[in-house]
Here is the input.
Amino acid sequence: MSQLRMTLAEIQAYVDEGEVVGSPDFFCRSVASLDKAGDDQLSFVKDRRYFDKARRTGAGALLVPERIEGFEGNQLVVSDSHRVFGQLLTKIATEKRRQPPGIHPGAHVDESAEIGSDVTIGGGAVVREGAMIGDRSVLYANTYVGQRSVIGADTVLYPNVLILEDVTIGDRVLIHGGTVVGSDGYGFVQHEGQHIKIPQVGAVVIGDDVEIGALTTIDRATLDQTVIGRGTKIGDLCHIAHNCQIGENVLVLPTVAISGSVTVGDGAIFAGRSGCADNLTIGEGAVLGGTSVAFKDVPAGAQMWGNPARDKMQEMRIQGVLRHLPEMQRELRAVKKKLGL
Amino acid sequence: MSQLRMTLAEIQAYVDEGEVVGSPDFFCRSVASLDKAGDDQLSFVKDRRYFDKARRTGAGALLVPERIEGFEGNQLVVSDSHRVFGQLLTKIATEKRRQPPGIHPGAHVDESAEIGSDVTIGGGAVVREGAMIGDRSVLYANTYVGQRSVIGADTVLYPNVLILEDVTIGDRVLIHGGTVVGSDGYGFVQHEGQHIKIPQVGAVVIGDDVEIGALTTIDRATLDQTVIGRGTKIGDLCHIAHNCQIGENVLVLPTVAISGSVTVGDGAIFAGRSGCADNLTIGEGAVLGGTSVAFKDVPAGAQMWGNPARDKMQEMRIQGVLRHLPEMQRELRAVKKKLGL
Amino acid sequence: MSQLRMTLAEIQAYVDEGEVVGSPDFFCRSVASLDKAGDDQLSFVKDRRYFDKARRTGAGALLVPERIEGFEGNQLVVSDSHRVFGQLLTKIATEKRRQPPGIHPGAHVDESAEIGSDVTIGGGAVVREGAMIGDRSVLYANTYVGQRSVIGADTVLYPNVLILEDVTIGDRVLIHGGTVVGSDGYGFVQHEGQHIKIPQVGAVVIGDDVEIGALTTIDRATLDQTVIGRGTKIGDLCHIAHNCQIGENVLVLPTVAISGSVTVGDGAIFAGRSGCADNLTIGEGAVLGGTSVAFKDVPAGAQMWGNPARDKMQEMRIQGVLRHLPEMQRELRAVKKKLGL
Here is the structure.
């Protein structure tokens, strides 16, 4: 599926470096992992740890950081094989996802919206009053950009993405299918046994180079702004509640939930299905392990595990003892018996 | 973003009460929280606990329950500043989300559907055979209302909301983007190692004044009705499985999952990411704490924490001791050694 | 809602078996469960365990495996009442969801796509370049099938389903509303404090007879294929990460999350909100209990509970002792005091 369709000589020219071992005319139909690659496919070897595995691969050609003795196929030796392979993947992804340019006749773009140059808007997409779409951005089919929302340049909204009103999104942002940005947060006050809605009239601001997975919700602030910092990467099926202030280059893995009004420092990591209670501060570079949930502030750099989240080493010690809990109970009974307690 | 664009005198006239301290002509461009407000913004002070904070705000004007001495800006003194501020937020939200009236030419409304007066239907929305849409309801772009489904009056379906067939929704209901109501529940019977689908032919009934967050799923009953009671508020990314009977004024916070055939009493609260196993009864006014999961029935009024959920006080005591588990193990070893065990 | 509109004689003819007790002309308006059925409804009794309940039902007619003495209404005695009832449910479901045949004029089907015979494509649906749709498949309104993706025969995509590019889906597959197949997995490498995207250029392959619930995400492989085996059933709001290899006839209940590069054996069961860490192998027929999360490989046939998941019996013993942990602490203190420790 990952079509490449280049000879090693063409790859050499495209990445502008490297030395071919074997045939420069070897045609790489597509790319694959070392495990799965067949004789018309290109794979890559990151470093010496994978050389033995490379000697057993079925790949017809390898991108390598240095010549691997004992590999029978063709090799292209480059300075940084991992980076160069990434360059080829980007080329493949770009070609696989090429969009027909321009505004599809089935799109509904309000006449007051400002559309940049070389923008692509798919069928059924809606761009509302006063919205702005930056140059070269792509709105797939059935996306929605609400009133007065601003989308930067080179940003991609995959199908069914909803950007509600008054949302600002930076440049080079990727938002995957069905994700909802700017929906109302969960805010109610109780009044005589009924729950009265607090209208959510704030905004959402998303920085440059952010990526957001599929079917994730990022709620608008009650009054001010929910903020996602530049370079932050959010996975599928995550929930970022209203008023959160998420720093830069934060990693939020799939199915994470961050409750309302949480502040997250730069470079923090939320592993899969972790989360935190509302109104907390998670420090810079802090790490919440998989399925861990913080109910208290987390200091910068801390590594937290468990639910409720504790210092990782402490939690590991507790989990280590937990396994022995039934025998501790038996031993304690024996002790009590011996002492006549 | 939260545009207001009114002078204090205009606000006074709009809410029909209050006394201005300072300039009645002060123009409030927008609203903000005490923390963030600038000199052209209006904020509010709920009660005396916030007076000190109010004296340090940058807000140009404040809605206050009584005159605050020492605040330099303008004040509008009203009987219940929290309620009056809510009134202004509702006005802002209504204006921000004003929809062009009528049926968009890009909508697909079946000729057998009954559409009430002053209904708005956006581009790409689908209304199927025999569906009914109540007066003044708003169906945003790319919503879907299935065969024979009934939407009440003054109800809003945000973009991409899916209401499958034979679903009944009350008046003044809000359903946020991408939420799916009436999808098939998870029902299979095993037959010779294969899983055979049990067709899900029941319905969903949603009461008046319900709000449902973005990207939530509420599955139809197998045979009868999945019910969401009047006034219940459900967050983003929740799952209400088939055959559930959810009472009135229940709070279901974001990312909660309620398994099949669960009965939930009026006024119960499911905190963030809590949940319960199937076929349980959760009593009136019961509370499940954040990430707590019930595997047994919960009595009315009970407060439950943990996974599995236990009485909150018991769970807190257990968690309090858990921290000391490694030292308990060491102590027990010392005891055994002393006793020669 | 579950309209049937057949007399017992008509049902007898339709299922081609059975003996009527009472009136063959009894008209069954609809179906319902024993608990809820009224006097114009048909319900069913699976076996003798439900005979007492059947005598108290309000149902006008029952499908029964043998004549029930003491039930006043009408009965249709058939060989396997559960299976025959399922046959009627399938008939009802088929009629309730009947789609107008053909391609809606508001659909956007690329001219290079291959569309089989008797295919239904709803308004706003998009079929991209080089895609193939098998005979008799149904694409509801606002679905999306990406470039070069292949949909088998008799497959149903409910509204808003997104199938991105290079995805292959088998025959008789059901995918519920809003689900996203083929979105990018969560793959980044760190470079000088920034997170650089690893382009995800692999594919997704979904076998025959798979069902996938609403608002679920199945990510494409980085290079190779994410695979969902034949007959596997996945619930709502699940996440299957990139590179997973899910076997045949696996049950993945709602809100489950399976991390990247996990291999799951045939017939395994993930109960509600369970999950597992990345790069694990879950053996054939293994069971993860509700909310359990595996952080280590799970052997074939193992039953695992808890987070982290342990052998079910061990976890039950630990949970049984945990309740007594505060009293164990008190007892240990008494022991130490007695020993002067």
Remarks:
- Chain C touches chain A through 66 residues (CB under 8 Å).
- Helices of chain C lie at 8-15, 51-55, 81-96, 312-322, 325-339.
- Chain C has five helices and 39 strands.
- The mean pLDDT of chain C is 96.
